[in-house]
């Protein structure tokens, strides 16, 4: 790997369980994907904004390889903030993707 390259995991965030009443009509198996810095959904799918916002803060750390004892390496579940819903999502890592600094930053690598 070149000095300006780094790797990120592709992520799948999937509804694992719904233990309450989900008013957004989510279902077990609903999912979205994060590849590099882009979020996508399967064709024709939607995803609850409130569940999504609970997961988003964790995703950049889950994309990276951390120390094996870091809780980001072992914990992979997120809960929707709606207490009546109790929707549980699992963050799953997929393949790694190699990126280059200059493709994701306006500050040129050779100036750092």
What percent of residues adopt helix (DSSP H or I)?
A: 10-25%
Which term fits the overall shape? elongated
> What value does the average pLDDT take?
94
- Run of helices and strands: EEEHHHEEH
Poorly predicted sequence stretches spanning 5 or more consecutive residues? none
Number of helices: 4
Largest sheet features: 5 strands, antiparallel
What is the SS-derived class? alpha+beta
Terminal residue distance:
18 Å
- Which radius of gyration do the C-alpha atoms yield? 16 Å
Strand order of the largest sheet: 3-2-1-5-4
**How many individual β-strands?**
5
> Strand fraction band?
25-35%
Walkthrough of the structure:
The protein has 112 residues and is α+β, with helices and mostly antiparallel strands. Helix content is 17%, strand content 35%. The chain is built from four helices and five strands, in the order βββαααββα. Strands 3-2-1-5-4 form a five-stranded antiparallel sheet.
Write a concise synopsis of the structure shown:
By secondary structure, the protein is of the alpha+beta class. The protein has helices at residues 49-55, 59-62, 71-74, 101-104, and strands spanning 5-18, 31-35, 38-40, 77-79, 87-100.
